[in-house]
Amino acid sequence: MLARLFSRRWLLATVLVLAAAAVMVRLGVWQLDRLEWRRAFNARVIEQANLAPMQLGAADTNLDLYSMEYRQVQITGEYLANDAVALRNQVWVTVYGNQLGYKLLMPLRIEGSDTAILVDRGWIPAEQPLDLAQYAEPGPVTITGQLRRAEIDVQLAFNADPTLQPGEQRLELWNYLDLPRLAQQMQTPLLTSGYVQIVPQGEQTQPPFANPPELDLSEGSHFGYAVQWFTFATILLAGYPFFARRQDLRNEK
């Protein structure tokens, strides 16, 4: 059988079958890798979410906030309304359907320090005039939120934010959150290892509307997809020799 499969008649087909089976096996392994990544992500989220809320103060500005994503924090400080920016094309899901708007991002100078942390204060409807200054809150405030990462490596090149034009000092409307770049247009030093997403407290009647993400902590369908790819590879490798033999017998008749 092995000699038949590598004969001149079947050599090309055998190479194609082996290549296809290798691709299927690799896809199965990739799904298992995705499953392990998902399990590690779920474990990290659960660990951080179950920790007691942290009081983030002036002494904590050197912490690695990136590794603490989904940890709940409380911060007292003063909003820097003049440095507020907005993200475009943000969708708010309501009982009336999806509504398009903006996400309000405003730095909060941490009490007792000269450092600020960016705060996602929530969603603003697109039909309202985009006047970010109206959302200023003078005086010290205490917020409760969740630490988040600003991931930008998956953004497509055509979605990148425009560069500053001559005479422009800052960008107010952004396509995605780039903390290091945002820090460059602020006079107050900004933490770039993470930001805070407000956790809503009670009923919300006025924008900005806080909307923490509802995380899916299931393992997804990765294991099922891996089994499918391995099964396809097995069927192909097991069935091909019988197919070749049957074709040869038919030709001999």
What are the defining features of this structure?
single chain; 253 residues; alpha/beta; five-stranded mixed β-barrel; 4 helices; 8 strands; elongated
Description:
- With 253 residues, the chain is α/β, with parallel strands linked by helices.
- It folds into two domains: 2-44 and 219-252; 71-198, no CATH class.
- 32% of the residues lie in helices and 23% in strands.
- The protein has four helices and eight strands; from the N terminus they run H-H-E-E-E-E-E-E-E-H-E-H.
- It has helices at 2-5, 11-49, 179-184, 222-252, and strands spanning 54-55, 72-79, 85-94, 97-110, 116-125, 141-148, 173-174, 195-198.
- Strands 2-4-5-8-6 form a five-stranded mixed barrel.
- Helix 2 packs antiparallel against helix 4.
- The longest helix is centred in the N-terminal third of the chain and has 39 residues, at 11-49.
- Residues 153-158 have low confidence and may be disordered.
Concise summary:
The chain is an alpha/beta fold and 253 residues long.
Topology:
Blueprint: H1 2-5, H2 11-49, E1 54-55, E2 72-79, E3 85-94, E4 97-110, E5 116-125, E6 141-148, E7 173-174, H3 179-184, E8 195-198, H4 222-252
Parallel strand pairs: 1-2, 3-7, 5-8
Antiparallel strand pairs: 2-4, 2-6, 3-4, 4-5, 6-8
Q: Please summarize the sheet with the most strands.
A: 5 strands, mixed, barrel
Structural class: alpha/beta
Instruction: Bin the helical content.
Output: 25-40%
Counted by DSSP, the helix tally is 4
Distance from N terminus to C terminus (CA atoms, Å) equals 19 Å
Return Rg in Å: 27 Å
Instruction: Please mark out the parts with pLDDT under 50 across 5 or more consecutive residues, or reply none.
Output: 153-158
One letter per element, helices H and strands E, the order comes to HHEEEEEEEHEH
Tell me, what's the shape? elongated
Tally of extended strands?
Answer: 8
Beta-strand residue percentage: 15-25%
**What's the number of structural domains?**
2
- The spatial strand order of the largest sheet comes to 2-4-5-8-6
Q: Mean pLDDT across all residues, rounded?
A: 85
